[in-house]
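pasting for ref
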Amino acid sequence: MHFRALGQRKGGFFLVSRAPRASALRIFSTRSTAIQSSRMLPCAATELKCPRRACASQGSESVSNEEEASLHLKSCFSAEPVQSAVPCSDDGTASLVTSIAELHQHRAQMASVYMGFLADRRVQYRDQLLLSGLGSIQGRMQVLLRRLLACHSQAAADDAHALPEAAAQMTLAAVRMLKETWMRINGVTFRSGEAAMRRAYIRELRDCYATLMCSGLLQSEGDVRLILSEMHSTDLIEPDASFYEALFMALWFLEEVRGSAGVAGERPAAGSPQTPEIVAGEVRQLRRSVAGDLAGHYMGHALAQPSASSTPTADGAPTHRAVRAETWEVFFATLANAQPAPKLLDLWWKRFLDWLDEQGTAVSGKSPIDAQDEGESAATGAPVPYQAIHAVLAWCAQSREMEKALNYFNAVNQRGVMVHATTLPHVSSPSPLAEDFTEPGCLTCPSKHTAVQQLQLALLVKLMASTKSIKMDGGLRSLVVRDVQRQVSPDVLYTAPWGVINDLIAGLSVPSAMQLLRRCSSSAAAATALSRPAGREDGSDERARNEEATAAKSSSTREIPFFVWASLLRRCSREHLQDEAESLFVFLRKKFPITSPEKRELIEIMMRMYTTMHPPDFLSTMDVFIQHVIRTPEGEPKVKPDAVLYELLIKAADTRNAAMMIFLEACAAGVTLTEELFEALMGSTQYKTVASLSRKLPHDYAASSLDAQLKIPADADAHLRREEALRARGKPLYDSTGDAG
């Protein structure tokens, strides 16, 4: 008996579907009967070799090669026209299962990279670092998602090139198609009466939505509202914590944030193009304030949902949690990159602490303690997630909020810190850290665990970075240096990530910073030599170990990246260490095969050093501009002049005529005119502060009792006597504006 004859029983084809693994029977349903797999003939059961499919699929799996096999099948999720899917082999199904596993790995990797941005403060003002770090992962996720859609659609077999264009704009049909394919591959169905299968279905459904959010296929906030509408109207579920975490990471790729679409309140004047903003030599690509507003909006949306109940629901749905500790960590990481107003961050921080106190002992990751410790922790408050305080301190370091950084640090030190493996994947198990990190005073107490020292160092250097460009630090720099020497071992310090080292040298003196970089560059060889197992104590083994250590020292030195050297050059320029800055400027151009943006950054640092001298060194500033911008040294990349470089030249000009000539040259070179450029031109004189103070007083001015209290000098009106003497001699008078009267 052939399978085709079995399928044509009762006058029509029936949908062959395979139940999930939890069910022991395979049920093949027709219009009026249900045939169990025990009744199936052996030949038919042998011939049936198809991958598992869920009952709630939009398309049907054809069981024959004839065209009329799938004419009367309808979708269970929508009333759209049914598309017959290309039959997938067992190898194809295994490949799709592998694709879903890879999507989960990419999602976890994206969260790890996103939280790792907190250690590098360059991400907070360089848009390209943020976009490139997440964009590469999103590109791989989009390829895997389009592979799932290609298996569902038969048109993909004929027009494989049309799929990227079709997926360029997210539609409701594409969302349902992807959701259906995801469920079918995972072998879960909505129509199962079992509570376990119902929970598995909702869990996979939320994983599908979170993966779709992370992939970057959503181009605007309208696509996000489309997903939320589909969840509310069709799936009848609320977004969970994983959805909001994926949304916070995907905000940076929306059109409203990327600047490709108009935003309310930011309409330029009619007929005038919007001037691009240049930050550190790069054109700003992101509207970070818009990202912060969207993150706050959706975080409020999550907090408005009712809290999760401890008991499962009657229909078998899993426990729903819209906000968890990891959600707050990702949210504060987004705020750190968005740079909101200080008052707004204070309000979110207060709401965060209230949420922690409400959770109490239900917060995940909190170690059990005895009743006495519970009473003490209740008085001080619940522990704070580590990445949350790391993000807040990163915001303080970028905003130069030294006082707020100390307040946040002390508040968390009194509460304690808890660690999550989701946001700190390099920590193998947070259980050894519980005794050191959940108790008050954990941030200032020495610990024997290497992981604890690494976490303490990452927070201490943020305090150091918050004092950057602040002369009167109140002794905070020396206090941080003392804590680092007391709590962090040299091996942990010298092998720390370069982002952490970059924050630390921001508060050190230049000789100390140079010595630290030299130790860090040779730490890899020392660690390699120390990590070798000890052998016999004879002379031959000692000589062999010395030779291996020497070879390791020469071959495995730790290379100092370019951005750390550039940060050291910026430090020398800020302190006007002209000899060290000029030596570093030559050294970096010879050592590194630098690109054009990197060389432009070095040129701006040197020109800014000469411009901020007292008085400005106009000749040196002009020499750097001519030698490296107008001309190009042999073997070095060419740098194009921009508004920032011309602005530095105008600020350094020693006369008004020189400033006006530079401005005309900038206009002739086609440089975009900015407000900062005009502001530099209007105040282009070394004596602008003296001129503003030496304006003429009115002739009818008379000293009052208030002037006597202020102790104005007796020769305060000397300029009036000078004016009378010049008039008596018949000479012209000049006021502070340079006009003759």
